[in-house]
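Help needed: design a sequence for this.
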């Protein structure tokens, strides 16, 4: 059987098309992504979808381009000039780019931008789904296509979709400035795996999901529309071997020698950037000016060689930036330059690959001063090319690469004095220290190369899909429900264990407001109306609450996880012999944290204490809960206590009791041939673990659990129970 295609979708195809005298010249791109994918997979397996970089003159040329690209496994998405202007130059680069690079003042909103962005994402979706064979996976690349994962998911729920965000993801406060923030977040959550360069970016995205969609998030995952989605960091690398090989070529070394000969008595600082306000070019020039002011002994001994690759210079912001760079370079050279020395050499052009490697080889220092960068591969290219490990890397802390290349000289580009001092430190650094730092960074770059990045992401995408399939296998489908209903119908002695909060009723911001509804009373009464059924509500609630709501009804109640019970004669009794001397000390600790946390409150039960933070600001509650756990953990063994980390609540109680032990004791008396247990919380895991293997155990929510099955949400529990007893 022919292998399924692996579909890559990006804004641009990995090619360049030139029109020369009515002839189309196609050249392959040498970009890192194309290199990494082609080296990780057989090229025949990959189908690449994207814009070919040219607007066809007519339908005939469009068809011709499509046919020319077909043997290369490239599928073009053709865009009009208006679509390019509004989708790419407009929404992508005048809204998303400045927000993601922490420059909200550069944002320009236009009504046409968003509608075109939506339309173009739909066009990419239609093109990708025009392929007859279902793909092995679809990997969507970058911010121009943030809506695409969800559009694909809407058309085919079974697709295996990954998304990678190649630029920074801003803090949730900044991302909230985008009017279409909800649509963008939901767009990305159509993917099974969402990747970022750094851990900080992944956490910013998770925080935005919490804030905008109010979805519960774990450390690297969240649940949205019945699917677990994983959010992780995958720092992108370079084709390490390619740069090492190039640096060994005689012609490249000749370029380096010739370049070096122009500066026989000077240290060379190189910087390579695309023209962009996120690259910190002006900040670099200001720091270099400060360096010249502070260290006059370095005059005539160092040169800053700046190579800036043209980019979007017709856009007003970029045109203005280019003019400011020109003025700053002229200012520095006019103040400090002389007939024999030009401090800053500035070139606005791109260089062939071999020439660039030659410059890397010849330079003593590489300077990267991004004010915000997803990764910045120049820093990695410099280390890889400098095979003698005799070059120093000065790297901005705001570049993603700084999280890996920790042996570089890390600077804050906004701090001119600090950056100037780093330049001086790099100039006087001993050869031994230079070599040690460079080699440490080289090992990172060699291991975490672009091939490793591709393999890691694709492997994790496959694992994510396997986890989702396992979840779906545990989900109560129609087939599973029919099987449970059949067991229920054939049984003669049935026992129900039902948790309360999050299972029979929704969570409320204040615990006392979650009282039973008329519909719930009717359901519970319907269950016990059948003489074959015994019902137990087993909860962490205080005995007083359950007593107020349910006393006088013919079903059993277990409160405070088993400390109180009205089984078997409907008279309340508590488990004797429980130590209480720990409560004042724990309560004092909880009160101190509650005083520091607006919205937090303590629920004092006779035999346990609960610290609630459901009403606390998102993020702060989790932070203070973690602090509380850290303080309490050392006390648990000394006092024989158990800490229960529940849904927006931290509860402390004696280890002698739990829901599982209490339920097992009741089950031993009832001897049921149909045993059902439903719960939503970590406290219910004891219930699932202690009861017999034959128990039909159901968790509310698809999180990892000892339960055999799960239901998506609390409302599903009531529907499940209603249908079960009706089937009878």
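Sure. Designed sequence:
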């Amino acid at each position: 059987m022919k292998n399924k295609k692996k579909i890559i979708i990006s804004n641009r195809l990995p090619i360049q098309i030139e029109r020369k005298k009515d002839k189309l010249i196609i050249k392959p791109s040498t970009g890192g992504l194309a290199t990494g994918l082609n080296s990780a997979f057989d090229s025949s397996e990959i189908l690449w979808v994207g814009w070919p970089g040219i607007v066809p003159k007519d339908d005939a040329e469009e068809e011709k381009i499509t046919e020319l690209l077909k043997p290369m496994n490239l599928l073009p998405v053709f865009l009009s000039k208006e679509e390019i202007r509004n989708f790419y130059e407009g929404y992508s680069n005048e809204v998303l780019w400045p927000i993601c690079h922490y420059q909200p003042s550069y944002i320009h909103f236009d009504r046409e931008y968003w509608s075109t962005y939506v339309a173009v994402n739909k066009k990419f979706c239609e093109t990708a789904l025009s392929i007859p064979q279902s793909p092995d996976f679809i990997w969507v690349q970058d911010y121009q296509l943030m809506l695409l994962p969800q559009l694909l998911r809407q058309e085919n729920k079974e697709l295996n979709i990954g998304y990678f965000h190649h630029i920074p993801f801003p803090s949730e406060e900044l991302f909230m400035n985008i009017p279409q923030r909800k649509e963008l977040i939901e767009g990305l959550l159509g993917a099974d795996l969402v990747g970022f360069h750094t851990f900080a970016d992944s956490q910013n995205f998770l925080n935005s999901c919490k804030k905008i969609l109010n979805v519960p998030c774990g450390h690297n995952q969240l649940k949205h529309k019945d699917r677990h989605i994983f959010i992780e960091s995958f720092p992108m690398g370079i084709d390490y071997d390619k740069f090492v090989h190039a640096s060994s070529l005689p012609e490249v070394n000749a370029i380096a020698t010739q370049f070096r000969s122009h500066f026989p008595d000077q240290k060379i600082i190189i910087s390579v950037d695309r023209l962009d306000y996120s690259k910190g070019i002006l900040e670099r020039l200001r720091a270099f000016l400060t360096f010249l002011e502070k260290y006059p002994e370095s005059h005539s001994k160092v040169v800053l060689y700046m190579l800036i690759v043209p980019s979007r210079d017709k856009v007003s912001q970029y045109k203005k930036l280019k003019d400011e760079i020109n003025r700053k370079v002229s200012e520095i050279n006019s103040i400090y330059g002389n007939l024999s020395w030009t401090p800053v050499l500035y070139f606005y052009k791109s260089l062939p690959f071999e020439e660039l490697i030659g410059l890397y080889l010849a330079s003593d220092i590489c300077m990267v001063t991004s004010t915000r960068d997803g990764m910045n591969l120049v820093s990695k290219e410099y280390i890889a090319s400098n095979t003698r490990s005799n070059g120093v890397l000065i790297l901005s802390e705001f570049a993603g690469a700084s999280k890996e290349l920790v042996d570089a000289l890390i600077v804050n580009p906004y701090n001119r004095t600090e950056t100037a001092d780093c330049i001086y430190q790099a100039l006087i650094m001993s050869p031994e220290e230079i070599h040690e730092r460079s080699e440490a960074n080289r090992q990172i770059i060699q291991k975490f190369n672009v091939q490793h990045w591709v393999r890691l992401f694709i492997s994790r995408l496959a694992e994510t899909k396997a986890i989702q399939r396992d979840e779906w296998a545990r989900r109560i489908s129609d087939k599973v429900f029919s099987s449970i209903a059949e067991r229920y119908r054939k049984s003669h002695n049935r026992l129900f264990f039902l948790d309360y909060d999050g299972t029979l009723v929704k969570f409320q911001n204040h615990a006392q407001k979650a009282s039973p509804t008329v519909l719930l009373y009717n359901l519970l009464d319907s269950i016990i109306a059948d003489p074959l059924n015994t019902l137990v509500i087993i909860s962490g609630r205080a005995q007083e609450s359950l007593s107020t709501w349910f006393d006088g009804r013919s079903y059993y109640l277990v409160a405070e996880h088993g400390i109180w019970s009205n089984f078997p004669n409907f008279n309340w009794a508590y488990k004797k012999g429980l130590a209480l001397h720990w409560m004042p000390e724990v309560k004092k600790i909880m009160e101190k944290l509650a005083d520091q946390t607006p919205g937090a409150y303590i629920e004092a039960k006779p035999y346990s204490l609960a610290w609630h933070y459901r009403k606390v600001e998102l993020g702060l509650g989790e932070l203070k809960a973690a602090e509380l756990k850290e303080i309490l953990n050392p006390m648990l063994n000394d006092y024989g206590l158990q800490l229960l980390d529940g849904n927006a609540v931290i509860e402390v109680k004696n280890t002698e009791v739990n829901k599982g032990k209490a339920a097992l004791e009741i089950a031993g008396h009832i001897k049921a041939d149909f045993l059902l247990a439903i719960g939503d919380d970590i406290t219910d895991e004891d219930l699932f673990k202690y009861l017999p293997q034959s128990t039909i155990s159901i968790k509310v929510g698809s999180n990892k659990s000892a339960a055999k099955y799960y239901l998506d949400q609390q409302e599903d529990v009531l529907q499940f129970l209603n249908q079960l007893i009706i089937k009878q």
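The chain has a mean pLDDT of 91.
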